[in-house]
Amino acid sequence: MAVTLIVNGQRRTVRASPDTPLLYVLRNDLELNGAKFGCGLAQCGACTVVVDGRAVRSCTTPISSVSGKKITTIEGLGTEAKPHALQKAFMEEQAAQCGYCIAGMIMSAKALLDQNPHPSEPEIRRALAGNLCRCGTHNRIVRAVQRAAKESV
Amino acid sequence: MSARDLASPSRRRFLQQGAGLTVAFSLGPLLRGSAIAEEPARLPGSLQTNRMLSGWLRIDPEGTVTAFTGKVELGQGILTALAQIVADELDVAPARVKMISGDTSRTPNEGVTSGSLSIENGGTALRFACAEARAILLDAASAKLGAPAADLRVEDGTIAGPGGARATYWDLTSEAMLKREATAKVKPKPASAHKVIGKSMPRRDIPAKVTGGVAYVQDLRLPGMLFGRVVRPPAPRARLTAADVPAVRAMPGVVAVVRDGSFLGVAAEREEQAIAASRALRKSARWEQAGDLPPSGAALFEHLRRAPSRDDVVSEKSETASPAVKTLQATYTRPFQAHASIGPSCAVAQWQDGKLRVWTHSQGVFPLRGALAKALKVPEPDIVAMHREGSGCYGHNGADDVALDAALVARAVAGRPVKLQWMREDEFGWEPYGSAMVVDLRAGLDEKGNVVEWHHEVFSHAHSTRPGESEGVNLLAAWYLEDKMAPGPARNIPQPNGGGDRNAIPLYVFPKQRVVNHLLPQMPVRVSALRTLGAYANVFALESFMDELAAAAGADPVEFRLRHLTDPRARAVIEAVASKSGWRGRAGEAGNGKRGRGIGFAQYKNKAAYVAVVAEVEVDRASGEIRVLGAHAAADAGLAVNPDGFANQIEGGVIQAASWTLREAIAFDQDHILTKSWADYRILRMTEVPAVEVTLIDRPEEKPLGVGEASLGPAAGAIANAVANATGRRIRDLPFTSERVKVALG
Description:
The complex is a heterodimer. By secondary structure, chain A is α+β, with helices and mostly antiparallel strands. Chain A is 33% helix and 15% strand. Chain A has five helices and five strands. A five-stranded mixed sheet of chain A has the order 2-1-5-3-4, with helices on both faces. Chain A is globular, with a radius of gyration of 15 Å. Chain A starts with a strand and ends with a helix. In chain B, the strands form six sheets. Chain B has a seven-stranded mixed sheet with strand order 9-10-7-17-14-15-16, sandwiched between helices. A five-stranded mixed sheet of chain B has the order 12-20-19-18-13, with helices on both faces. Chain B starts with a helix and ends with a helix. The interface between A and B is large, with 60 and 60 residues.
């Protein structure tokens, strides 16, 4: 059946079962690469997107529950040529190794900064504690979020 | 090309024509020299096994340089560093350099991207290839401009001669120009001439990764592509007795259900349909189980010590020494630990006319191709394996296995490509773990408190069971097919690299020493290369024991290490980390029951980067929780091609080692691997990782040394010593869980 989603400001209609996790629709129907499959269990945060201002695990979010809500993926923030402050800061801090977790990290950070534009370092760490990183890039990621917060003043 | 080819008539004709004439101007005699030689000359790095310049480099008329490398990007920044090397040696802007990596149809075969060897082997080959290509281009320019090559200057591919004469690489290039064997007679630039090497260049892979660009094999989409999943057995040697294939085949979107022996896979139009089908197939499957896993907990290590073994004395030294007046011995253990990549392994496979193309995040596309050919019973030339990035692997994870899974499922869907990704439980349950290990140490101190005798015995399974072995097939699904194949034989990687015994030979100078490796060839729990192989546990043990000996000798751990080290670079990293961390000596560093600091040191493999780490920990005595508050690392990797990339690897290694050391162990019982998800395998989180300060000791005139794995052992040693220093209790069993800490604190 058809479900209509508002993704990065655009209305998109997809034909999929209503219980389909949002992640597969984003990746396969809408061809958006940012959200990643990491665990399918909402344990790692690699699939994080922002729904109505909140960081959400798209791997366990059925599309029926987000129909009509505003969904933002990392593709909705900016591009290589015109990056969002967070994307720019992640590039400037070289805050990635393999980078598989990074889109999820950035989307969790986006939800945080929208709520709290000037978070303390512990606040940043708490907001990103549900996003796992295996390469050990954590401290660069925190510095990138701090930089983005500073630059978007 | 062999020496015989060089002497062939066609080769001579080529040398007499066109660009060949100008080559004879400076390189001709050298080429003729190598043509006469019976044995091909030894060439540096991977040039030795990939000898044609055109295999490494193409100068494109449109103003770009295409470099080919068998090494692959794993998130370690290698393609950026290699592009820096190419840019500097050729005198072109880095933006002109395109990197093609890991493609069996296009790139040199450089084996596996592992062992922190990519800069050493792959980078060295590119340095020499580019230096020689530059000389060839200069010779061509010299002929064209009528000026001696020595009078020409190159800037970004434009060659300027006296009196304003100019030529560019892009005009001079011809297809034939680099179709020749490398001689390595043109010396790469000295460090003083580097403009790009040694600078922190932004990584080329990062922009796509932070904007949702196509960055990973998971992002590949091909026309008509299906989604695949596998159903793995409930236990390592379980045998499939029944599965309801027709019922699953009838599910929505399902295009194929593959059952071959005990291998089960599905392909469906949509990813969620493939997942639903694999779950239904799993539910319908019946298995005969073996129940043959080793004992777990403390009994595992007794089992390892008693298991049949192949024993090698890997180092023995017996010099005159003063007698030992005090002898210490201790046993250290490490459990099975996982790579635990954030993204489960994934591959895309497509069969057309009996030929297979596979897109893979394998660390070695050539060895993978060989193993796929054996498993699928097709000739190797009928398979093309192409690298695409995956999630970080940290060694041999499921990357290769999933390529065979994808190929097996794709074979059932007539020409359509299949993207097959493992589920989280597939990755935790089936990736080859880093082997559990037992390390027994014994040492004697003389009356001055110096170590005069040292004994190190390590018990461990193999640390590399990668695809590409000449016997057997090291791909998971191959062991479960109807016509099943055996894995390759267990072997230990010999010194000087070492496998289980990697870094077991101390860099410290002791007059008498004996190091014995016990390889346990029966491997009921699947194991292979996890970042550092045996070095992590060996350095953890060795560095812990050095602190135990220092305490017995009443010495400061830093001073105690320095007094046993002669290598000036080893001493320098220890002195640097002591100074940067404000190390206060034995009395000044006394722990207070709760907080303490410790040091760890190693030169990775005794031949790659030198790293010393000082870590500070805080122990909550009530809960047993250890927090690593911070770490200072000092590192010397010789010439640092990309210093920020180098720092990123050191920082990441310290954090990953902290996670291994405090938290990580695979759980299993007699029948099953019990670790299935992140809830069962709790790696350190953003709120739990230490701050890491890195001091790089740049030695631009020294050769570049591998850095990717160098900080993990020293970090483990530093954390262990910090915990002992903080609490006064020595914990010798990894990981340092809160339960273990509470027991240790009594």
